[in-house]
Structures are given as C-alpha cells and as structure tokens.
C-alpha cells in the first residue's frame, strides 16, 4: 500500500495543496508537524496527529516534530470563540517540556528531530520581522480566514492583534524549517488549514520555492458528537496523573463496534489485513468485543508502554470476569489503589465494617443482607455465607478486590502485608 493509499484508507486526509495526492508517493520529503503547549498534557485528539506522523515515517519520510514554545505564548485563535487566557512563560516552558516527553515516548525507537520554535523566535526584533516577514502577508487574505471572519463578524467576540498575528509566527516556523532543514511539507489538523497556508505563501514569496501542506481530518467522538481536545469537557489525557492508565484503557474498551474499527485505523499501527480480520470477527462475534479489546491494548501500549498495557489488560479481564484473579500480580493490584475506593484492613477484620466504610453498603444491616444473599464476591469468587472476616487467603499481593453484584467494587489493602 502506498502512502497516499494508506492515508485515505485510515481516514486521515482532509485538505492538501497537492493537485494530486499521489505525488506523496513520488519522493521522500522532510516534513514537520507542530504541537500546542497550552496545557501540561496532550490528549487523545493530539494522539491522532501523532499517528498521522507515524504513517509518513513508515513510508520513509524524515520527521521534524515541533513544540510550540513561542506560539503557545500568543495562543492560537483557530477553533476558538473567544481569546485564550495568556499563560506565563514559566507555565508554557513547563508545558513544552511535558509535550516533549510524551512525544518522545510515543515515537520511542524512531529517529526524529524535535524542535521548539521559541529557539528561533526568542530574539526576533520587531522592525526586521515586520520588514522581512510581515510584508509578505496580505491583510485581505488574512481577513478571509474562517476563524478571523467568525470572530470579527456580527455577534463575534472580536480578535486581538496578538491573535491576528499568530498566523505570521506559524508561517515563519515553516520558513525557518525550510531554510534550516530543507522541510517541504507541513502536516496539520483541519483547523490549522489557514495557518498552514501562511507558511506555504511565505516560502513562495520569500524564497521562490513551492512547499506543501496536508491536513488531518478532525477526530470526532461519535457517541457524543464532540471532538477530542483539551478544552472540551471530559478530555482523555496522555498523562497518567490526569487520566490513569486503567481509565485510559477503559475509554477505548468502551467504544462502540463501528467506532472501534475506525479507531483501530486511526490510533494503532496495525496493518490493513489484521484490522479486516478484527472487523470480520466483530461482525460474527460482537459480544466478545474483539475490536475493542485489541484497540484498548494497542493504544495503551503506544502511550504507556507494553508492561503497563499488559497490566491493565489483566486487571480488566479479572474485574469483568473473563479471566481469573490468579493472573494478577502485586503491581497490577497496586494500580487499582488510584481507581477504586481503598480501605486498609487486617487479617480478622470485619467484612461488614469494610462494606459500610467503602460504601458498598449503606448500613451494617444492609451489608449483612448482601452477605446472606450471596451478593458479595472476593477476587471474583462468591463469599461463603459463614465468612464474616478477612482471612490471609483472601489476598493477592496484599490486596483483595471486593465486589457487590456485577459492577460495584472496592479494594481492601492489607495492613503490614510484608509481615505476613
């Protein structure tokens, strides 16, 4: 499969300056794509852009990954109804470093060049910039950009000069990377089309050379109709302190059948034949959720590594009944401490008290009723009617998963486990 064919099959392509997308197949180019640093973590929406980059890398293109240390100080107005709150230089520097670390992890094992546009804009002087760069931009063209016309039109919130000038900075990035590294292709999100064109026009006017742009389709959560993004409610983050690894895995596991197949194309490195097999298996055996399980594992592996992906896979299978708890180890169960209500207990501690403290039961009377009705499970096994206390056999690596019914779960953590 050629690059242009794979981009179309994976559903990546949005707009391009190429008159024929097959020109991507004719030569291997140096390309770049930028990532915003307005937050201290990227989201799954940004992950789609990273997988977009991976497709070009696999076809022999030379990547430059840009973190927006300077452009984030100004704030991209694209896709926003009102101006972003400006953040301090220290905050942006911290966010840029966080973005760099996440990008390095996703592209682990792959050679790429990472740059920060603050490095070449930090000492730019105003008058030379206006003379050498600003004179190449037409105000008429800039006013026709969608985000500008929407913000300054009737009912719009207005547009500051800083926001209006953002596109000059992004165009300047392309010119710098063209001069420095011979970069002739920029990748961007669909909402970056106008800003990307600024770079194309600047290189043409300032250097007399043709460069190009390819933009990525906006990724939509089909269950909500909203895009994946930092400013949208309920964002799924790549930083495990903001979205835990278990939550991250569950997000992908809970996608619908059609979404799961689409997301396998967008968010994993699986080849077409394997995804087609998963599609067929999903159609014939949807109840076992083969596409969702593979999707959850593959994406978690890319973002958090093979070991963590394997651990949350085992946890999920044990918690939801497809595998036994004997597959889990101490590290697996320790992960659950950040996911579940956790209560320290001792050998001989009362189970009724535990159920009340962890809100698995509203009162001791109700807790005893649950026990009598055989509605309480420890590590997936139904609790014996005559057991009212924790025993040492109830624990795996100092932890015990206590479940009421099908889905209400708490974690018992054994006090002084190392002394057992």
Highest CATH level, the class of the largest domain: Alpha Beta
Number of domains: 3
Helix proportion of residues, in percent?
40-55%
Shape: elongated
Q: What is the number of E strands?
A: 13
Strands of the widest sheet, in order across it, are 1-6-5-2-3-4
Q: CATH homologous superfamily name of the largest domain?
A: HUPs
CATH structural fold name of the largest domain: Rossmann fold
Low-confidence stretches: none
Major sheet summary line: 6 strands, mixed
- Output the radius of gyration: 26 Å
In angstroms, what separates the terminal alpha carbons?
58 Å
| Beta strand % | 5-15%
What does this structure look like?
About 45% of the residues lie in helices and about 15% in strands. It is an alpha/beta fold. The chain has three domains: about 220 residues, Rossmann fold (3-Layer(aba) Sandwich), CATH 3.40.50; about 80 residues, Tyrosyl-Transfer RNA Synthetase (Orthogonal Bundle); about 80 residues, RNA-binding S4 domain (Structural Genomics Hypothetical 15.5 Kd Protein In mrcA-pckA Intergenic Region, Chain A, Roll), CATH 3.10.290.10. Strands 1-6-5-2-3-4 form a six-stranded mixed sheet, sandwiched between helices. A five-stranded mixed sheet has the order 9-13-12-10-11. Strands 7-8 form a two-stranded antiparallel ribbon. Strand 5, helix 10 and strand 6 form a beta-alpha-beta unit. It starts with a helix and ends in a 6-residue tail after the last strand.
């Amino acid at each position: 499969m050629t690059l242009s064919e794979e981009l179309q099959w994976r559903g990546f392509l949005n707009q391009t300056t190429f008159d024929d997308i097959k020109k991507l197949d004719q030569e291997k180019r140096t390309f770049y794509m930028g990532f915003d640093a307005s937050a201290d973590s990227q989201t799954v929406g940004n992950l789609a852009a990273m997988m977009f980059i991976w497709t070009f890398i696999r076809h022999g293109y030379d990547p430059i990954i840009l973190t927006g240390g300077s452009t984030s100080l100004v704030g991209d107005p694209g896709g926003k109804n009102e101006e972003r709150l400006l953040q301090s230089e220290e905050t942006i520097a911290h966010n840029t470093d966080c973005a760099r670390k996440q990008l390095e992890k996703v592209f682990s094992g792959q050679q790429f060049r990472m740059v920060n546009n603050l490095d070449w804009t930090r000492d730019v002087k105003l008058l030379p910039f206006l003379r050498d760069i600003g004179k190449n931009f037409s105000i008429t063209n800039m006013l026709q950009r969608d985000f500008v016309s929407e913000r300054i039109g009737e009912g719009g919130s207005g547009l500051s000069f800083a926001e209006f000038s953002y596109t000059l900075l992004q165009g300047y990035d392309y010119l710098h990377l063209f001069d420095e590294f011979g970069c002739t292709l920029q990748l961007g999100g669909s909402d970056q089309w106008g800003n990307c064109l600024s770079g194309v026009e600047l290189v043409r006017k300032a250097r007399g050379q043709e460069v190009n742009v390819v933009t990525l389709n906006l990724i939509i959560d089909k269950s909500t109709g909203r895009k994946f993004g930092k400013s949208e409610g309920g964002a799924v983050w790549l930083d495990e302190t903001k979205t835990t690894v278990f939550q991250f895995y569950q997000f992908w596991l809970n996608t619908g059948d059609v979404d799961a197949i689409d997301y396998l194309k967008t968010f994993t490195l699986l080849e077409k034949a394997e995804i087609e097999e998963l599609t067929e298996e999903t159609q014939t055996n949807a109840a076992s959720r083969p596409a969702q399980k593979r999707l959850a594992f593959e994406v978690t592996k890319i973002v958090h590594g093979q070991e963590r992906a394997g651990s949350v896979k085992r946890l999920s299978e044990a918690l939801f009944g497809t595998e036994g708890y004997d597959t889990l180890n101490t590290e697996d169960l320790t992960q659950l401490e950040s996911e579940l209500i956790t209560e320290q207990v001792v050998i001989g501690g009362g189970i009724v008290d535990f159920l009340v403290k962890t809100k698995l039961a509203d009162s001791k009377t109700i807790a005893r009723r649950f026990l009598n009705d055989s509605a309480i499970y420890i590590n997936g096994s139904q609790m014996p009617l005559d057991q009212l206390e924790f025993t040492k056999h109830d624990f795996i690596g100092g932890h015990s998963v206590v479940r009421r019914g099908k889905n209400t779960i708490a974690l018992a953590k054994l006090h002084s486990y190392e002394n057992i």
